[in-house]
TrEMBL record:
Residues 588-663 form the Lipoyl-binding domain. Its cofactor is biotin. Residues 1-446 form the Biotin carboxylation domain. GO terms for molecular function: ATP binding; ligase activity; metal ion binding. It comes from Azospirillum thermophilum. This is 3-methylcrotonyl-CoA carboxylase.
Amino acid sequence: MFDKILIANRGEIACRVIRTARRMGIRTVAVHSEADARAMHVQMADEAVCIGPAPVGESYLRGDVILEVAKRTGAQAVHPGYGFLSENAAFAAACAEAGVVFIGPPIEAIRVMGSKAESKRVMSQADVPLVPGYHGEAQDFATLSAEAERIGYPVLVKASAGGGGKGMRVVRSAGELADAVAGAQREAKAAFGDDSLLLEKYLGRPRHVEIQVFADTHGNAVYLFERDCSVQRRHQKVIEEAPAPNLPDEIRRRMGEAAVAAAKAVNYVGAGTVEFLYEDGGFYFIEMNTRLQVEHPVTEMITGLDLVEWQLRVAAGGELPLRQDQLTRRGHAFEARLYAEDPQREFLPAIGRLVHLKPPAETAHVRVDTGVRQGDEVTMFYDPMIAKLIVWDEDRDAALRRLRVALSQYEVVGVTTNVGFLGAIAGHPAFRAVELDTGFIERHRADLLPPPAAVPDRGLAVAALAVLLRRRAETKAAPRAAGDPNSPWLFANGWRLNEETHYDLRLMDGETAREVTLHFRPDGYEVAVDGGAPLAATGIALADGVLTGSIGGAKVRATVVQQGLDLTILSEGAVWRLKLDDPSARAAEQEGGSGRLTAPMPGTVVRVLVEPGQAVEAGAPLMLLEAMKMEHTIKAPAAGTVSAVNFAAGDQVSEGVDLLVLDIAEG
Ligand code: ADP
Ligand code: MG
């Protein structure tokens, strides 16, 4: 076995490989871009080396630099993860030349399977059933259109070098073919540097069922059952599961054997996935991925095996740990891919800081594979996946329940995510009923992507109570001269001083202003939203950003995260966003100042320039903050009186915290 390996990847897969290596007593070398200097995989590895600037072409795709690092650090093998260099035959060849083991299949297998067309030619020789289609070398339009006629419309135009759903076009009739071919060629050329195409019969309602295979250098090859990845959006997997529900055992066995035959046909070694479409009892090879697949954890959950351990053993020349007849499976597993993206805006990647990140607790039933921590940034340079949430239980219904609960517990604030969308799929009756095929998401679009709803009254009540309790705590923590008794920043003091009985708060729900009135009662509060019937709020407490108690007779438990004026409320799987309509900020906006006395980024307080009670002019410097090796001056957005200084020199502050409180002078 190796003593030291290099992981040529980042994010969750790099972390996942490091975990297994560590368990096996193998030392690890991480490589990283400048943007990833403090990334999770860098911190987890025993050693880390910077290989270049943020763009992948200048770092994670620099095979030459990575091999240099492998030699310099004494790494005996390179694990490529998925994506990046994992299916790059030239890189595998360069590894061999450098005397470093590539943890993956032989170069020739990567090359053949890297071309969908060539792999289909080889598969048809090996009697693996194919989707009817054309995978010849001739690419002139006359040939393609004659073949499309022969196959019969609708046909699917695919990039032979394709992956990740790119370069694919559905063509419904002959008239659409020319445009689709031109478009697919352009896309394929740009994405893969190769514009060769193939044609396939476009199946109407297939399921995507794939087989995990494994082979060693001693002639052994097995299949580790299947995964169903039918829940897709734009041909990309969203939720995967194992085993494939309602798949007859006989089909499972035949598919498994066909996949092993496919692997043997290319002298495969290591982990691979043979993808099939399954429709009306028939199954058809579409492609083989010559690497560890994103969704491999569901296979690990039902087999109890560690596929990365198997990869390492095979790459070190060992035999497969188990034979086909020793492989068993138990229970059911799901994986959901949690992305920083906005389902309401065509799933556009969302970038920003993970201001608050709290995954569900990991147990025997729940596994979280992630490469980011709270405070990390999702940038435009890399895949915006935040985590893979994996659950297991004895049967599909129980596992699905686990998935719904775990999704509802996943708390992410700072970037928009698809967690609600995933929850909608997991909770959909058709998904529960195994009405599965690759058109699932499109067919149920209206249910899965409802238009954004107004924040419910309960959410507004939670927000207002949290703001109230937080401000009360702040004013207690920072006693200062009483400023404007009506300032919302200080109202906790204000109402007591004035013996007022209620408090009004205005919150923006998107473009809509919402009014919350809080009445103080001996046993708690009464909360009325937009002048509606008041809800009784009792036993309300706020600790570590979590509000608990009872509102309108129902128990509540909500995490409330505040960044400046932005409030995010996470409760029972729902996420509500509101903005404080804050008069001091409005005043500041009118002054043209920033209006935010909050930390613009995480940093250290260098100096405090004012004290509570001090009157300041607009623009006066209040505090110096050091962040990202630069000093930032927090200035008064308008003339006023400093009413609280919440931090002292040397304190660490996180982004969005209130540094000081200023009473803006009237007028
Ligand atoms: P990629 O390399 O992008 O993963 P695949 O060939 O594996 O490309 O196809 C991706 C997805 O596209 C499949 O899982 C399936 O949903 C859909 N697809 C591919 N081929 C067909 C086909 N012939 N008919 C219908 N859907 C298909
Ligand atoms: Mg595929």
